[in-house]
Amino acid sequence: MTNLTLKSLLEEQATSLYYDPGFMTFIDDHLPSLRRSTSTRVVEVEPSQALKYRGDLFGLLGELGIPPYAKYTIMKMNDYKSPTEIKEALLNTLLIPDVMELRKLFNLWRAHNATRK
Predict the structure, then answer these.
(1) pLDDT per position as a tens digit, 15-56
(2) DSSP state letters, 77-99
(3) Residue 2 — pLDDT band, cuts 50, 70, 90?
(4) Distance of alpha carbon 22 from alpha carbon 99, whole angstroms
(5) Does the predicted TM-score (pTM) go above 0.90?
(6) Alpha carbon distances (Å) from 4 to 11, 17, 86, 106
């Protein structure tokens, strides 16, 4: 039996909102500004990591300590359509958005949706 805490359930629910189709479309619309942002980091991927996680972008992001809610955005920022699409020969760096900027976009999207209801 899994020991679920209230905190873990709330985190899981919050993460699932980042995968709402509306928010995913919203992120797609904001990719150019996320890519250009001065707070976006370029993270080097070690060849051993690229080999280990060939075809598993989300696994690599987990190893890099990326929170689950940011994984879709990172996938799209790096021009992948699927987390299984990556090939180790092509994976040298990843664009990683600033977490606060991503949260700001999320809150903007939520506020916009709240006013539409």
Answers:
(1) 788 889 999 999 999 999 999 999 999 999 999 998 899 899
(2) HTT-SSTT---GGG-SEEEE--H
(3) low
(4) 19
(5) no
(6) 11, 19, 33, 25
| Euclidean distance between CA atoms 59 and 116, whole angstroms | 36
Length of the chain: 117
74-107 burial: b if 16+ Cβ within 10 Å, else e: bbbbbebeebeebebeebeebbbbeeebbeebbe
- Helix (H) / strand (E) element for 24: namely helix 21-36
Note the pLDDT tens digit of each residue in 72-85.
999 999 999 999 98
**CA separation for the pair 73, 71 (Å, rounded):** 5
